[in-house]
Amino acid sequence: MRPVAAGETRLGWIGLGMMGAPMCGHLLRAGFAVSVHTRTPERAEAALAAGARWCDSPRSVAEQSDVVFAMLGFPAEVREVALGEGGALAGLAAGGAWVDMTTSEPALAEEIAGAAAARGVHALDAPVSGGDVGAREARLSILVGGDGEAFEALRPVFEVLGRTVVHQGGSGAGQRAKLANQILIASTMIGVCEALVFAARAGLDCERLLASVSGGAAGSWSLANLAPRMLAGDFAPGFYVEHFVKDLRIALDEAGRARLELPGLALAERLYAALAEAGGARDGTQALVRAVAEASGLAWPPT
Amino acid sequence: MRPVAAGETRLGWIGLGMMGAPMCGHLLRAGFAVSVHTRTPERAEAALAAGARWCDSPRSVAEQSDVVFAMLGFPAEVREVALGEGGALAGLAAGGAWVDMTTSEPALAEEIAGAAAARGVHALDAPVSGGDVGAREARLSILVGGDGEAFEALRPVFEVLGRTVVHQGGSGAGQRAKLANQILIASTMIGVCEALVFAARAGLDCERLLASVSGGAAGSWSLANLAPRMLAGDFAPGFYVEHFVKDLRIALDEAGRARLELPGLALAERLYAALAEAGGARDGTQALVRAVAEASGLAWPPT
Q1: Is residue A264 helix, strand or coil?
Q2: Domain co-membership, A151 together with A190
Q3: What's the pLDDT score for residue B303?
Q4: Which among A224, A15, B20 is positioned nearest to B12, based on CA atoms?
Q5: Which residue of A187, A244, A247 to mutate against B (max B Cβ within 10 Å)?
Q6: Less Cβ around it within 10 Å: N or C end of chain A?
Q7: B132: pLDDT confidence band, cut at 50, 70 and 90?
Q8: Chain B: residue nearest A297 by CA?
Q9: What single-letter DSSP state applies at residue A43?
Q10: B1: in domain
C-alpha cells in the first residue's frame, strides 16, 4: 500500500460527533480531500464549510475514497456502517483501506478485517485515547491493530490526529489495547470518587487535599483533570457515561471469554451502569462522584 | 511556640526503618542535634555515625528533646511510643511538641493530642506520601493535622523532609488526608494490575501498551512507576503490603464510622489482605499483580 498524502489520497470520514468532527477538521486543514457522512446531517455543516464533500451513505463515501475512517458510538453502528447493505466495504475498491477509530469489539474488528481481506481491502482498528480535548488539540493516543504495512502507509494521517501513534499488533489488537486503557481508567475513577467523598465527609478542605496529593504517588490524569470538575459539580461531558459503560461491557465480555476474573472492572461496570440507568447516561464520566456520594446519603457537590 | 532552628532546637527521632532512617539523616545533615531510639538498635548505626545520640527509650529521647518525631509501623506502636510508660509524652517538657509521621488512626491522633494538651505539649499528626524514594530524596508530601501555630513553628523541619507541606486542619486531619491518599492509590493499583493481566492474556506487547497509554487519560503515578516493576516481576518493597493493608483497614474503619459505602476501597482491602495472608506481607504493593494473575490461573510475570 502506498503512503497516504494530501492532494493524492482521497479520504472518507463517517461519524461527526464530539470526537469525529474535530478529527475530520484536522484532516481538512491538513489539505486532504474528504468525503463525509454522518447520521445527523446538520453535524456536517462545519466540515462542509471547510471543504468536505457530502455523501448520502457510508457506501457512497467509500465509492469516492481510497481510505475510509469511521468514528462512531457503538459496535452495532460499526457493523452497519462497515458491513451493512449501504456500508463502506461494499463501496471500497481493491487496494483501499477501512480504518475504524471507534472503541468497539475486538471480535468485530477481526470479522471486518476478514470481510475486507476477501475484497482486497486493508482494515485497521485504531481506537483513540485522549477524549474530546485530545481530539480538538490533535493530541490523541492512537492504538492501532492490523496489518503493519497498512499501518505504516496510513501513519501520516494518524500523525495529523494524534501525538502517540503505536502499532499494537494484528487485527483487534488496537481494540484490546484500548480496553486495557479503559480498565485503567475505570478503577482509577473509583479511587478518585471515593477519596473525594471520604475527604468531604471527613470535613477536609478538598482543594487543599488535592494540592497535597496530586503530585505524588496517588496522582493520576483523572485526579488532576476530573477531580476539580467533580468538586465544582461540573458534570458536562468530555466523555459520555453511556460510552464508557459500552467500553466496560466490551472489556468484561473479553475478560470473560479469556476466563479472567477482574473484580475492579466488574465493580466499575456495575457502578457506571447504575449511573446511566439513573439518568446519567449523557453526563461526563466524572458524574460518578455524585452516585458514590448519594449511595452513602451525602449530597454532592459538598457545600 | 518558637520556630525550630538547627543549632537551637533539640530534636528527637523514634523509628529508623525504611522511611525513618533517611528522614532522620536529612535532619542531621541540616545541622540539627538529634536524639534517636528505634526498636532494633543496629538500624541506628548510620544515624549515630552521622552524629545522632542514642537513647534507650522513647521517654529518654523526649527528655533530651524539644520536639519528638515518630515514624513507626502500626497504630499499636504509636500508642506505646507516645502514651506508654516509657513513652515520649511522659518525657516532654511543657512547651515541647510531639509529631507523629506514621500513617495511623485519626482517633488515636486526637487522643494523643488530648493527652499532650493536658501536659502543655503540642501535638501534630503529619503522615507522608512519597514512599521510600520520596524519603531518600526529601521529596515527600507531608499532610499535617493539629494546631496551626505549632505547624508554622515546625515548618522548617518539614521543609527539610518534603517538598509539599500542607496544613490540612485540626488534630487527625493529617491522618484523614493520608487515608484519602491511600484510597486513591488502592483503586488505581487495582486498575493497573487488571489492565496488565488483561493485556498479557490478550497477547499484547505490554511495553508497547505502556508507551501508548501512560501519557494519556489512563496515566497515573502507579502506572508510570510500578507497572514496569510488575512486568519485570520485581516485587522488592518500596512500600510493604502489610503496611498498605493496615492503612486500608484504618480507612475502611473510618469510612464505616462515617457511614460511607466505598466498594472500591473494600475490594482493595480484600485483595491486599489475601495477598498478605498468602505470604506477600513483606513484598512491595506492586506484587498485587501476581495475585490478580494467579486468581485467573495465569502465571506472572508473563513470558
Answers
A1: helix
A2: no
A3: 78
A4: B20
A5: A187
A6: C
A7: confident
A8: B260
A9: G
A10: no
DSSP string, B40-91: SGGGGHHHHHTT-EE-SSHHHHHHT-SEEEE--SSHHHHHHHHHSTT-STTT
Calculate the alpha carbon distances from A142 to A9, A31, A248, B44, B268 in Å: 21, 21, 19, 52, 31
User: What confidence tens digit (pLDDT) does each residue in B23-53 have?
Assistant: 999 999 999 999 999 999 999 999 999 999 9
Catalytic annotation on B178?
yes
Active-site pick, B26, B176, B178, B246: B178
Task: Let me know whether B57 and B81 are in one domain.
Answer: yes
Hey, are the CB atoms on B169 and A143 less than 8 Å from each other?
A: no
* Same structural domain, B289 and B248: yes
Is A5 domain-assigned? no
Same domain, B73 and B200: no
A50 located within any domain: yes
Residue B76 makes CB contacts below 8 A (sequence gap 6+) with: none
In this prediction, the answer to ipTM > 0.90 reads: yes
State whether A262 and B198 contact (CB < 8 Å): yes
List the grid coordinates of A115. Answer: 470481510
Render A130-150 in DSSP notation, one character per residue: SHHHHHHTT-EEEEEEE-HHH
Q: Could you tell me if B268 and B190 lie in one domain? A: yes
